[in-house]
């Protein structure tokens, strides 16, 4: 168990972000029906572009379509016959860009990249100065690094204590503790405190891996990070306690925890940022304790914003913890 | 075969005995599919913008264009450019723009400084393109036509749900077929009933088959209603062969079950089973399958590793059959991988099963 707890961040935090650290490379096929100097210039432009993989040159649209069907290319550029002639006459014929709509994200990004590569965009570059904030690279490695740290901590916080309590319920340990006269609040409180320390240990392990593998630094300082993680871990621990208290048996508890976890994870900013949430889910995410933890980690590690920006989430976290704590005690007392 | 059905019936009664667990197993995946299908989008849904204008009324038209931009949800007017960084923290904006007068007095063209939160690179291009195009159109009128006519194949309107639905189906099938099935295998070990089963004359293969059948039937129910919900709620039909699509989903489910069988039979506790399922199966499949980030964007060496994830093969095959309408031959690499991985997992599980399972 301890070995697994040590190994899991190595895989999740140490390895997975490496796979997510690259930018979009447009994979394309070119069907050049014109075979002129102008059309060859387009091919040359794509060969020299950093954002493009070397394009596949196809003799017909059918050949290019076969490549797309086999997922070899995401876009096809069709240069019509007479392209150079019409260009010289001053009314250039349009090329056709076919994008693989089944791979929506790649199609969308690739189309935008090809348009900006092959269009004259002199105006915007001269009058709009663009400044990148919080990330100097074209990839989201740090975003996902924090996401995966959060994912690891969330699992430890919800599952470990939840499984521990549901096993105690199964073996009637809770009833025996009540009989001894130990205050249930004290008992649960100490259990939660112990598990919160496990979460902090796991945080240190994640930070160590982040530092060794990715040279990750903390923008605001280690003290603030521990404080934020500690505070936002409590609502998650109490979610685990609450689910274990609500469930009638251990299997029910496991089912509830698994589904609660995947709902909470998907509706946090672990997979996609809050700005990508549509409609009412944007507001629902703001009530999600996993979102609070992830936002807290990002605020301290990546942005370096002051802690006062987290005040609404901190207050909500404390309130939610109290609600879950008191309801769990009631439920456990009633069951026993 | 009778022995297999006996174990299957026993397992099914275990699942359905507790009505709440049964309800969770059937209702929550559907709820997850619908709610997350609507919630998550691969592209930016709202742009919160901060604007600092030092150019006076000259910039009013540009500002009004920026305010009317598609997906701009909130506009915060700043008193001075020095507030830009603070506004990212205070107002949680995704971008800020400082408009100033260019050099050369009042008649000089406006100058723009665009600050974008680049932490999630997937949204940067969308934000920059929208703001650039609003500024350009307010300065020089309608934008110049791109040199292309763009057509999206297999998805003419670029329905963005197409990107998320295969990933959500993958998550549901992994949760039900790997995690929950793995736990059910492990439960027999933890509670000691595996010893009793080992004493019966059924043999390992029949016990395993008997345990697989009910969960496989449950996953077929899941696949059926996910197809129905995909069509009725999200309007995503199946362009290829329906039978091939159904069998492909069933194969992925079977593959996930074999992995669950392997994990459940080797682990000693629920905790160990869940840790392995969550960190070593669910998380890699979530991030490396192409659901969160296209596999083609990954570094060359890492692509090979992502191809070891069954989720990658499921998503690629799903897109091929359901969206592109490709047939068996085109999807043979994905089908072969899933089949071979399932067989390897089954063989390893069976090899250690009788020894480890009965020793619980």
Q: Can you give the mean pLDDT of chain A?
A: 82
Helix content, binned percent of chain B = 55-70%
Order of helices and strands of chain B: HHEHEHEEHEHHHHHHHH
Mean pLDDT of chain B: 84
Rg of chain A (C-alpha, Å):
27 Å
Overall form of chain A = elongated
The share of residues in extended strands of chain B comes to: 5-15%
Assembly classification: heterodimer
Tell me the strand order in the biggest sheet of chain B.
2-1-3-4
Written overview of the protein:
The complex is a heterodimer of chains A (336) and B (360). Chain A is of the alpha/beta class and 336 residues long. Chain A is built from 15 helices and 5 strands. Chain A has a 4-stranded mixed β-sheet, sandwiched between helices. In chain A, helix 3 links the parallel strand 1 and strand 2. The model of chain B has no long low-confidence stretch (mean pLDDT 84). Chain B is 64% helix and 10% strand. Chain B is built from 13 helices and 5 strands. Strand 5 of chain A pairs parallel with strand 4 of chain B, so a sheet runs across the interface.
In short:
The complex is a heterodimer of chains A (336) and B (360). Chain A is of the alpha/beta class and 336 residues long. Chain A contains 15 helices and five strands.
List the helices and strands and how they pair.
The complex is a heterodimer of chains A (336) and B (360).
Chain A: H1 2-12, H2 16-19, E1 28-32, H3 37-48, E2 56-58, H4 61-69, E3 75-79, H5 83-88, E4 95-100, H6 104-118, H7 122-127, E5 128-133, H8 141-170, H9 173-179, H10 184-214, H11 222-246, H12 250-266, H13 281-285, H14 289-303, H15 311-335
Parallel strand pairs in A: 1-2, 1-3
Antiparallel strand pairs in A: 3-4
Chain B: H1 2-17, H2 19-39, E1 47-53, H3 60-67, E2 72-78, H4 84-90, E3 95-101, E4 110-117, H5 121-140, E5 148-153, H6 161-191, H7 193-199, H8 204-232, H9 242-266, H10 270-288, H11 300-306, H12 310-324, H13 332-358
Parallel strand pairs in B: 1-2, 1-3
Antiparallel strand pairs in B: 3-4
């Amino acid at each position: 168990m301890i070995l697994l707890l040590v190994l899991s961040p190595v895989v999740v935090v140490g390895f997975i972000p490496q796979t997510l650290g690259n930018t979009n490379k447009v994979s394309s096929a070119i069907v050049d029906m014109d075979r002129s100097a102008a059309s060859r210039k387009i091919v040359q432009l794509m060969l020299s572009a950093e954002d493009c993989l070397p394009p596949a040159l196809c003799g017909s649209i059918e050949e290019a379509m076969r490549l797309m069907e086999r997922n070899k290319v995401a876009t096809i550029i069709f240069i019509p016959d007479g392209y150079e002639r019409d260009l010289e006459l001053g009314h250039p014929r349009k090329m056709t860009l076919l994008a693989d709509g089944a791979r929506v994200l790649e199609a969308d990004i690739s189309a935008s990249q090809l348009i900006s590569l092959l269009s004259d965009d002199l105006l915007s570059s001269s009058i709009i100065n663009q400044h990148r904030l919080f990330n100097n690279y074209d990839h989201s490695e740090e975003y996902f690094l924090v996401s995966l740290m959060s994912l690891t901590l969330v699992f430890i916080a919800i599952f470990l204590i939840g499984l521990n309590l549901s096993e105690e319920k199964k073996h009637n340990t809770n009833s025996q503790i009540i009989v001894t006269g130990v205050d249930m609040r004290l008992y649960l409180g100490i259990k939660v405190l112990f598990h919160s320390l496990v979460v902090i240990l796991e945080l240190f392990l994640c930070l160590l891996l982040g530092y060794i593998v990715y040279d990750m630094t903390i923008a605001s300082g280690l003290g603030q990070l521990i404080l934020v993680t500690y505070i936002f871990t409590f609502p998650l621990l109490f979610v685990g306690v609450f689910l274990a208290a609500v469930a009638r048996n251990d299997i029910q508890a496991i089912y509830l925890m698994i589904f609660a976890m995947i709902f909470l994870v998907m509706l946090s900013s672990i997979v996609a940022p809050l700005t990508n949430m549509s409609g009412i889910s944007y507001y629902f995410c703001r009530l999600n304790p996993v979102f609070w933890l992830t936002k807290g980690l990002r605020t301290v590690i990546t942005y370096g914003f002051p802690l006062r920006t987290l005040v609404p989430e901190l207050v909500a976290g404390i309130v939610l913890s109290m609600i879950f704590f008191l309801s769990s005690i009631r439920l456990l007392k009633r069951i026993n | 075969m009778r022995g297999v059905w006996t174990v299957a019936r026993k397992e099914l009664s275990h699942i359905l005995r507790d009505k709440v667990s049964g309800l969770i197993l059937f209702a929550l995946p559907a709820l997850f599919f619908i709610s997350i299908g609507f919630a998550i989008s691969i592209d930016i849904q709202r742009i919160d913008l901060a604007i600092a204008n030092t150019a006076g009324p000259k910039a009013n038209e540009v500002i009004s264009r920026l305010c009317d931009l598609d997906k701009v949800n909130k506009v915060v007017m700043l008193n001075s450019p020095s507030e830009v960084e603070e506004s990212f923290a205070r107002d949680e904006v995704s971008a800020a723009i400082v408009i100033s007068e260019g050099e050369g007095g009042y008649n000089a063209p406006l100058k723009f400084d665009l600050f974008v939160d680049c932490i999630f690179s997937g949204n940067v291009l969308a934000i920059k393109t929208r703001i650039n195009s609003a500024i350009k159109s307010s300065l020089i009128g309608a934008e110049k036509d791109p040199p292309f006519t763009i057509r999206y194949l297999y998805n003419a309107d670029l329905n963005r749900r197409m990107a998320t639905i295969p990933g959500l189906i993958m998550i549901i099938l992994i949760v039900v077929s790997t995690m929950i099935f793995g736990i059910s295998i492990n439960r027999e070990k933890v509670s000691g009933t595996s010893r009793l089963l080992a004493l019966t004359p059924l043999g390992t293969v029949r016990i395993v088959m008997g345990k697989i059948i009910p969960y496989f039937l449950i996953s077929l129910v899941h696949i059926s209603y996910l197809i129905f919900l995909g069509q009725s709620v999200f309007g995503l039909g199946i362009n290829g062969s329906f039978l091939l699509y159904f069998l492909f989903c069933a194969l992925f489910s079977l593959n996930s079950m074999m992995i669950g069988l392997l994990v459940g039979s080797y682990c000693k506790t629920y905790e160990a089973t869940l840790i392995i399922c969550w960190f070593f199966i669910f998380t890699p499949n979530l991030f490396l399958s192409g659901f969160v980030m296209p596999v083609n964007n990954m570094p060359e060496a890492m692509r090979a590793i992502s191809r070891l994830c069954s989720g990658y093969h499921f998503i690629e095959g799903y897109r091929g059959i359901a969206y592109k309408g490709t047939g068996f031959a085109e999807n043979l690499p994905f089908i072969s991988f899933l089949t071979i991985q399932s067989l390897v997992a089954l063989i390893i599980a069976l090899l250690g099963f009788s020894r480890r399972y009965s020793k619980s």
